[in-house]
TrEMBL record:
This is 3-isopropylmalate dehydrogenase. InterPro entries: IsoCit/isopropylmalate_DH_CS, IsoPropMal-DH-like_dom, Isopropylmalate_DH. Coiled coil: none annotated. It comes from Brevundimonas terrae. The gene is leuB. NCBIfam families: leuB.
Length: 353
């Protein structure tokens, strides 16, 4: 591919965020050296780090830099020291997703033979799992009106047809490139937003994607079936909160939440790429964080934002090679620290080229 320059805004955030974003930047820089691309990184504040420095979890200049970037790489936000405080780090992440129009959150999971014994679940159940969650990211209860009195509280869940349609189309398009199946997860037996969700998904399927197989599932039984028969799933399409919860559950299939990447995409403009885990304050600053979720998020950036397929494949092949040689971090029962794991992946990239 032709050589290009890419401006990447890095939002290290809190806890393990700075460690894992540093790891992914090192991997990107290595690939840039090999393929002749220039990846320029500019760090900005978000989350608790931003509250401490500026009083707000998302300074205006961070927001402006993200919108103007070619792509955004995020670590994680959140720290227990803000519990019970009026301004919380997590608000910065919700706001940047909304202001960048990032309505589709893609969370892939593959359980390779080399890693299937690392899962706490039975190998014969998880091995060969290859699924992709499409989580709606800018609607639903996380963005609804809130009320609070001394004795009651409410969170309003709202979806418009347009919000459901755009993430639904993205999920069906992805399914066409995969095994051609979408499982739409809702709670249509109880919730009105879910009934609108189901009607809308059914209509888009019939009108635009009749060649994709569509099944509907209720979120409670889907949570069970994901653990019992994960290989049956291809693309899972769901709303914001259900997707948040199910993707942490799904991470157990692969052995650790530290392995899972994500891409958050809008209809145009830069995407945002981050591991699905949080700031992991229990292991922050100790060289214990698994950097792979963030490194694979960088691979998703190369593929989805920069159309650099070969470069993305190189990262994924290097990660797989390191895992196959049983070099893993502590969360998977191994001994590697963040630094050593990153170095092993960089060495594997160099070995491939
Ligand atoms: P968490 O994902 O930070 O941690 C859950 C568990 O997984 C912890 O035991 C942690 O040590 C482990 N873990 C997470 N990432 C790991 C990695 N890369 N390598 C090895 N182990 C890893 O979730 P938790 O503890 O519920 O939340 C901590 C903070 O993070 C909270 O303030 C929460 O609001 C915030 N959070 C932020 C997110 C984000 O920035 N996208 C997402 C989820 C939570
Ligand atoms: Mg979550």
């Amino acid at each position: 591919s032709e050589k290009r320059n890419f401006n990447i805004v890095v939002l290290p955030g809190d806890g393990v965020g700075p460690e894992v974003t540093k790891a992914a930047q090192r991997v990107l820089t290595c690939l840039g050296d090999i393929y002749g691309h220039t990846f320029s990184f500019t760090e900005h504040l978000i989350g608790g780090a931003a509250i401490d420095a500026t009083g707000t979890p998302l300074p205006k200049e961070t927001e402006a830099a993200c919108v103007a970037a070619d792509a955004v790489l995020l670590g994680a936000v959140g720290d227990p020291k803000y519990d019970g405080k009026p301004v919380r780090p997590e608000q910065g992440l919700l706001t940047i997703r909304k202001s960048m129009g990032l309505f589709a959150n893609l969370r892939p999971l593959q359980v390779s033979p080399a890693l299937s014994h690392r899962s706490p679940l039975k190998r014969e159940i998880v091995e060969g799992t290859d699924l992709l969650v499409f989580r709606e990211l800018t609607g639903g209860v996380y963005f609804g009106e809130r009320t609070r009195t001394d004795t009651s509280a409410s969170d309003l869940c709202t979806y418009t047809v347009e919000e459901i349609e755009r993430v639904t189309r993205a999920a069906f398009k992805a399914a066409e490139q995969r095994r051609g199946k979408v499982t739409s997860v809702d709670k249509a037996n109880v919730m009105e937003t879910s009934r609108l969700w189901r009607e809308t998904v059914t209509r888009i399927h019939a009108e635009e994607f009749p060649n994709v197989t569509l099944e509907h599932a209720l979120v409670d039984s889907a949570a069970m079936h994901l653990i019992l028969r994960p290989r049956d799933y291809d693309v899972i399409l769901t709303e914001n909160m259900f997707g948040d919860i199910l993707s942490d559950e799904i991470s157990v299939l692969g052995g650790s939440i530290g392995l899972l990447p994500s891409a958050s995409l809008g209809s145009d403009g830069p995407g945002l790429f981050e591991p699905i885990h949080g700031s992991a304050p229990d292991i922050a600053g100790q060289d214990k964080a698994n950097p792979i979720g963030t490194i694979l998020s960088a691979a998703m950036m190369l593929r989805h934002s920069f159309q650099l397929e070969d470069e993305a494949d190189s990262i994924e092949a290097a990660v797989a090679a390191v895992q196959a040689s049983n070099q893993v971090t502590r969360d998977l029962g191994g001994e590697l620290g963040t630094e050593a794991a990153t170095r092993a992946i960089i060495d594997a990239i160099r070995a491939i080229h």
